[in-house]
Amino acid sequence: STNTLMNGFDSIAPGKFSGRNFHFGIREHGMGAIVNGIILYGGFKAFGATFFVFSDYMRPTIRLAALMKIPMINVFTHDSIFVGEDGPTHQPVEHLAVLRAIPNSVVIRPADGIETAMAWVYALRKIDGPVSLILTRQKIDSFERESDFNPYDVLKGAYIVSKEKSGKLDFIIAASGSEVPVAVAAKKHLEKEFSIRVVSIPSKEIFESQSEEYKNEIIPNNIPLVIVEAATMNGWGDLFREKLLLIGMNSFGASAPYQTLAEKFGFNGKSVAEKIKNWI
């Protein structure tokens, strides 16, 4: 159900070890431990995949991978309240903040296919710690980028999706994952009155490691900043000290179609624009 089975390759089974797929069953902690063990043995790149809410059961193995500098790769799908009808037991809320809090652990939450491809490039290249890819269940609206967009900018953790008008920059709307199109939509509601930049931040940790020059180029000091993410917002205030509006979750989700949840919890262009207008 995470759509990560490698087609064309057999599955490992008793007495049959030539395959590349390994069915772990419902045992995330065991999966994380085995993935670490395969990598430590040498000669293999290995990843595990499950729903993001079940990363709770994998946290000890991710922490050990970070401590031991094991390049484990985790593919976590169903990444937010937009899991929908499964309800709050299966809807991650605090999980992004928890994984980001682990030292030497990189979390990447892509906004579309391009960002996902570059996230995979980063994960395959990294040799000294775990990388977790955080992916949606639902389809994400497409969005346009600037003509000078370079896909390798994704590997810097943040980049400009939509530039401000010439002249003064009034504020920046930043987001990750499925909320990047929401940020773009919010800009469209407000652009007649304000000069707005939209920034995608697929990885807080990677962006934090960039040079001060690059960070200030993307998100200049002393410019009001809005961050939109369908999760608890712990940690964003540690990275950004500008006038800051955090639009996220401060409760568990609910059981409903994801479109209804987006409306109820305010993750659409109109709702975000209204919150910004009241704040700015």
Name the descriptors.
280 residues, alpha/beta, Rossmann fold, five-stranded mixed β-sheet, four-stranded parallel β-sheet, 10 helices
SSE succession: HEHEHEHEEEHEHHEHEHH
- Shape, please? globular
The number of domains is 2
Q: Compute the gyration radius: what is it?
A: 19 Å
Count, helices: 10
> Tally of extended strands?
9
Strand order of the largest sheet: 5-7-6-8-9
User: What portion of the residues fall into strands of 2 or more residues?
Assistant: 5-15%
Structure, described:
The longest helix is centred in the N-terminal third of the chain and has 14 residues, at 28-41. Helix 1 (28-41) packs parallel to helix 2 (55-68). The protein has 10 helices and 9 strands. Strands 5-7-6-8-9 form a 5-stranded mixed beta sheet, covered by helices on one side. Strands 1-2-4-3 form a 4-stranded parallel beta sheet, with helices on both faces. It has helices spanning 28-41, 55-68, 95-100, 113-125, 180-190, 204-208, 212-218, 236-239, 258-265, 269-279; strands spanning 47-51, 73-77, 106-108, 131-134, 159-162, 171-175, 196-200, 225-228, 244-247. The model has no long low-confidence stretch (mean pLDDT 95). The chain has 280 residues and is an alpha/beta fold. It folds into 2 domains: 28-134, Thiamin diphosphate (ThDP)-binding fold, Pyr/PP domains (Rossmann fold, 3-Layer(aba) Sandwich); 151-279, Rossmann fold (3-Layer(aba) Sandwich). Helix 4 links the parallel strand 3 and strand 4 (131-134). The chain is globular.
